[in-house]
Every structure is written in C-alpha cells, then in structure tokens.
Amino acid sequence: MSAAALAGAGRAALRLTQSRTVRVGFVVVAVGLAVVALWSRWPDVERAVQRLDARYLAVAVVATVGNLALSGLAGRALVADLGARLPLGLAARVFFVGQIGKYVPGSLWPMIVQAELAKQHVARRLTAAATFLLVLLSGATALMVMLLALPFAPEGGGAGLAWAALLVLPAAALMHPGVIGRLLDRGLRLLGREPLERWTSVRGTAVAAAWAIGAWLLAGLQIWLLAVPLGAPATWRTFALAVGGYSLAWAVALVVIVAPAGAGAREVALGAVLSPVLDRGAVVVVVLLSRVLFSAADLTLAALGCAAGRREPPVTARSVPERRSTGTR
Questions:
Q1: What is the DSSP letter of 106?
Q2: How far is residue 319's CA from residue 61's CA, in Å, rounded to a whole number?
Q3: What is the DSSP code (8-state) at residue 156?
Q4: 243 class by beta-carbon count within 10 Å (0-12 exposed, 13-18 middle, 19+ buried)
Q5: What residues contact 171, with CB distance under 8 A and at least 6 apart?
Q6: N or C: which end of the chain has fewer CB within 10 A?
Q7: What is the per-residue pLDDT for 202?
C-alpha cells in the first residue's frame, strides 16, 4: 500500500471514530465481549476457587488491581512527558475505560478509544502517541524483567530467556526519545496530522518504565499467589518464574493482534512456563483464574474510572507547557 493510500485510510478511520454512535456502540461491544469472556468460564472458575486458599486469593485480587493501577500511572507519566498533566481521576477514566477496547480483536482499539475519551482535554494525537508508547514501553520492560528473572527460576529460562536477550537491546533503543520521537512524527504526518509539540524525555521515559516494572512484579505476584496453594514451592525462585513467565506470556500475546486481549496465546505461554512447578491440572487452574481476575478488574476499574473522571475539572491551558525544543530534536 502506498503512503498516500495509507494516509487516506488513516484519515477515514479517524473520521469514523468521531461519530458518537460508533463510539457508544464500540464501548457496548467491548464491554459485552469482556463480560462474555468472564461468564463463559464461570463454572470452571467456581471449581478452581474451591482448590485455593481464600487468603491467597484475596491478596491475588489486590495484586491484580495493583498491576492495572501501575500500568495506568505509566500511561499518565507518558502523557505528562508529552506535555499534558492529567488529573488522576481523568487519567483513570481515559486509561481504564480505554483498556476495555483490548477485548475487541485488533491492537489499535485502546489507542483510538483513549484518544476519543481525552479529546476535550488533550489533543488526540498526544493521547494516541502516549498509548502507543505505553505498548512499546510495556513490551520493552517485559523483556527486561524476563531477562532478569528467568535465570533465577527453576530450570532456567530456556527459549524465553534467549528471545529476551536477543530483543531487549533493540526494544530499549527504540524507546530512546530521539528514535521514537522521529518515528511518531513521521507516522502523524502520514495520517495528515501535525507532529507532536514535544517528544518524550529520558527522565520521563524512566519514570514510566519504573511504573511498568512495578506492574510486572505485581502480575508475577498474582501468579505466585495462585500457584503456591496448588502445590508450587513457596520460594523466591518460584516468584522469579512467575514474574518472568507472566512477562513472557504477555510479550507473546502482544504480537497475536487478532485475539482479544491476547486470549489463548497468553495462557498457552504461561502454562508452558509454569509446567516445571505445577501438575497439568493446577496449571490450567492458575492460567484460567489469572485471566478471569484481570477481566474482572478491567471491568471494575473501567466503571470506577468513568465515575471518577466526571468529577475532575477540565485540563486548563496552564497544565500544558508551551511548545519547546528538546535536546534530542
């Protein structure tokens, strides 16, 4: 496809998202798919819960919500680094409601929905760029966490460790402001949009990366809390396996763009990593409950974010710094 055709398709897609009917319909479909994904597994969930310790399950719920909250803070940090500091309530509405879009097949829906939700406060291109950056940053930090955690896991990291070692440096280089800034500006020009007023900074990227790494640790803690009551050793090596394994599973699911929220791909990858410390039945329980907890948390936080966002004042012009040049531009 030529650059002109690509730009035309992009502009047509952007016009389509500006329709209120399309936006409302999309949210209804996305929420519906998330509820269906949760409800269809409920009988299995009930049987699985009976095998778990309620105390471990309760803490696993907290870790799940914490993972999503830290991911939201990483996204907010990137938006701030690009020039708009969103109040927490508004940032929660944009991020958590937009994340429901991942339940619709295709990886661009959260970006489109979040840009639409924030359009009255922040330029669409800025929100879309921050969402795209968050996906890249999440992938890069997942590889980093995997590379650091899996060597300490039982039986080492295997093929996952090899892939992480191969990809982590290119992924980190891509996140450098001078590299990703130029790529984003070029992409915006192809879509007929103005370039960003400012690029990310090294400091801002580091702050967002710190939030993202914290999110991976909490995701691994969730897996550890689900696996230990089912027979996995309650050791730090098992925790390293859980953290590295979840990061690997998420990275695998990221490239399976046709599956809603990486469904299927993430479970298969996570199950393969957990097989050295759990029997097959326990592996199924852990990966199933992990998915259900994340789906339930997504829906709950989306509802809370919607309510919180309505109470926040709009972003004023003072919240958005003037156009400036960066040292990498």
A1: S
A2: 34
A3: -
A4: buried
A5: 136, 139, 140, 143
A6: N
A7: 92
Q: Which has more confidence, 4 or 266?
A: 266
CA distance 259 to 279: 27
- Coarse DSSP helix, strand, coil percentages of the chain, rounded to the nearest 5 percent: 75, 0, 25
Residue 146 contacts by C-beta under 8 Å, 6 or more apart in sequence?
157, 160, 161, 164, 244, 247, 248, 251
Residue 317 CB contacts under 8 Å (≥ 6 apart), including other chains: none
Most confident of 82-91, 109-118, 190-199, 200-209: 200-209
- pLDDT score for 261: 47
Spatial neighbors of 18 by CB under 8 A, at least 6 apart, are 116
Model confidence over 11-38: pLDDT tens digits? 444 454 455 555 555 455 555 555 565 5
The rounded distance, in Å, linking the Cα atoms of 61 and 133 is 27
Write b or e for each residue in 190-229: b if 16 or more Cβ atoms lie within 10 A of its Cβ, otherwise e: ebebebbbbbbbeebbebbbebbbbbbbbbbbbbbbbbbb
| pLDDT for res 89 | 85
Domain ranges of the chain: 3-42+50-308
CA distance 259 to 197: 34
